[in-house]
Each structure stands twice: as structure tokens, then as C-alpha cells.
């Protein structure tokens, strides 16, 4: 079964992505868009790992985030393009702590995530928003995030993440159900809490695994993940997953192989 899919993957690797699913259909907001932040007391720090994101979704994502974050910590994990400079340009006017890894650490993700965590703590954050370069919230998040940050009851918020397969539709089938579950993306740092990591080389989580011991809640605000909308990107991701996890012991074999399903079930997004 696996060999059949790998042969298919090899045959399709040069097939151009359909124009309808190209990142070009996304129209990013200009980086100089006016900031919408209010004078809230709590500080929101964006924490992000990037690698070779120039020309993809980074501009759109950071144009969204800069409206409500106060500063950013970015780990450039061995980019060979101008991703790091793009981050500084797109977040011009905001404090940015940028770390450049000369050699990528992604093959041992827990090491990379621990580095991201320590560098983020070095700026003494109040709240941490941990997102990838191809993720951003639905539009109403900018107007509602302050209420999440200012409340005093919870230290962690979880959200549903929607895996988009085109610019306007997300995937919804047996292997792609992230949007049916809530995952942690927004964390209030608690200095006297002992954070512990899941020590696995892949799929270790963005945050320490024991954060659900903190008072936590869920939010109806939805998070868009756009990294799957380009077919070539999907094939590249599958190759990377199979190279880093050849025995498929850290992720789902069924989900890995479903990446190249020619007829996925898609649902149109309603903002």
C-alpha cells in the first residue's frame, strides 16, 4: 500500500498546482495598515517558527497579526531566502526578537520548540500567541481578542483549526477533522508553574504538554490554516513527513497518505 502511494507521489511531483488553489488568490493586506490595538494592559506576544516562507503566506499572516499583537519572537529555522528580512519589514514599528538558526532543527522538533519557548520567555510575555506562518484567525478575532486577554479566570485558550484545501474551502473527512477539536494556541505565561515537554522528535506540540493543568477555556473564534491549499506544497510536506517519520510512528499513516487523495471532501468557508 505504502509503496503504491510513494510511486504515485513520485509521478505527480512535477504536476503544476491548479491555479484555483494557488496562494496567489490570497490578497494580503498592506503591511502599513493601521494598527487596531487598544490600550489594554495585557501584552500579547506573537511566537512563530518560520523557514523559507517568502512568497507564500507570510505577508498575509503578519499583516493580520500586526493589528493586535504588541511584539513578536520569531525563530528563522535555517531559511535560504529572505524570510527573516520579510518578517522585520512586515512587522516594522513593532518590537521583534529575531533568532536565525544557521542549521534547521526541525528534524528534532522538540528541540526547536523548546528553543522557541525559551526565546519567547526572554521577552517576559504576558500572553503568548503561538502560530505558524500559514495561519491566521477569522476577521472578528482582532475585535474580540482583548476580552480574552483582560479576563482573570483563564490562563489558556484553545481554538478550532480549519485545514484549507483551497483559498475558500476547508477539508472535512475521516482523516481531516482538526476543526472538530480545540487545540491550545493562546497561553498566559505563569512564572511559578513547572512546564514539561513531550520529548518526541516529531509532533511534540507547540507548547509544553502539561499546560492543561492551568485554568483553561475554549473560544468559538476560528483559526485558518492555509498551508495545504497549494498542491505542490502538499506533496512537499508529505515527502518531508515520510523522510522525518519513515515508520509513521509519530503521526497517522492514514492521514499522511490521504494528503494525495484526488477527491477530498471540501466545505466552503463562511466568514
Element layout with pairings:
Layout: H1 2-12, E1 44-50, H2 58-65, E2 71-77, H3 83-90, E3 96-101, H4 109-121, E4 127-130, E5 135-137, H5 141-150, E6 156-163, E7 169-171, E8 183-188, E9 216-225, H6 231-244, H7 253-258, E10 266-268
Parallel strand pairs: 1-2, 1-4, 2-3, 6-9
Antiparallel strand pairs: 4-8, 5-9, 6-8, 7-10
Helix pairs in contact: 2-3
Protein described:
The protein has a domain of 175 residues: Alpha-Beta Complex (Spore Coat Polysaccharide Biosynthesis Protein SpsA, Chain A). An eight-stranded mixed beta sheet has the order 3-2-1-4-8-6-9-5, sandwiched between helices. It is of the alpha/beta class and 271 residues long. The relative contact order is 0.17.
Q: How is this structure best summarized?
A:
It is built from seven helices and ten strands.
Short descriptors:
271 residues; 7 helices; 10 strands; 26% helix; alpha/beta; eight-stranded mixed beta sheet; globular; Spore Coat Polysaccharide Biosynthesis Protein SpsA, Chain A; two-stranded antiparallel ribbon
Q: In CATH terms, what is the architecture of the domain at 39-165 and 182-229? A: Alpha-Beta Complex
Distance between the termini: 39 Å
Taken as a percent bin, the fraction of beta residues is 15-25%
Largest sheet: 8 strands, mixed
Broad structural category: alpha/beta
CATH overall fold name of the domain at 39-165 and 182-229: Spore Coat Polysaccharide Biosynthesis Protein SpsA, Chain A
- Spatial strand arrangement across the major sheet: 3-2-1-4-8-6-9-5
CATH class annotation of the domain at 39-165 and 182-229: Alpha Beta
Amino acid at each position: 500500500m505504502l509503496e503504491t502511494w510513494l510511486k504515485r507521489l513520485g509521478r505527480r511531483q512535477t504536476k503544476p498546482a491548479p491555479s484555483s488553489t494557488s496562494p496567489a488568490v490570497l490578497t494580503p493586506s498592506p503591511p502599513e495598515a493601521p494598527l487596531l490595538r487598544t490600550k489594554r494592559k495585557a501584552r500579547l506576544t506573537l511566537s512563530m517558527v518560520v523557514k523559507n516562507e517568502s512568497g507564500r503566506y507570510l505577508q498575509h499572516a503578519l499583516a493580520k497579526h500586526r493589528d493586535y499583537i504588541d511584539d513578536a519572537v520569531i525563530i528563522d529555522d535555517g531559511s535560504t531566502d529572505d524570510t527573516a528580512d520579510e518578517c522585520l519589514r512586515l512587522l516594522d514599528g513593532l518590537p521583534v526578537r529575531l533568532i536565525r538558526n544557521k542549521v534547521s532543527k526541525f528534524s528534532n522538533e522538540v528541540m526547536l520548540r523548546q528553543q522557541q519557548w525559551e526565546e519567547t520567555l526572554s521577552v517576559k510575555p504576558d500572553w503568548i500567541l503561538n502560530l505558524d506562518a500559514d495561519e491566521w484567525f477569522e476577521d472578528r478575532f482582532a475585535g474580540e481578542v482583548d476580552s480574552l486577554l483582560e479576563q482573570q479566570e483563564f490562563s489558556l485558550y484553545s481554538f478550532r483549526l480549519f485545514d484549507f484545501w483551497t483559498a475558500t474551502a476547508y477539508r472535512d473527512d475521516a482523516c481531516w477533522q482538526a476543526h472538530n477539536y480545540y487545540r491550545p494556541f493562546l497561553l498566559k505565561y505563569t512564572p511559578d508553574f513547572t512546564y514539561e515537554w513531550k520529548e518526541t522528535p516529531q509532533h511534540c506540540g507547540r507548547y509544553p504538554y502539561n499546560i492543561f493543568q492551568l485554568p483553561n477555556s475554549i473560544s468559538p473564534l476560528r483559526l485558518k490554516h492555509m498551508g495545504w491549499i497549494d498542491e505542490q506544497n502538499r506533496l512537499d510536506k508529505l515527502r518531508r513527513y515520510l523522510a522525518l517519520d519513515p515508520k509513521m510512528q509519530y503521526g497517522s499513516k492514514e492521514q499522511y497518505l490521504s494528503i494525495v487523495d484526488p477527491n477530498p471532501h471540501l466545505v466552503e468557508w463562511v466568514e
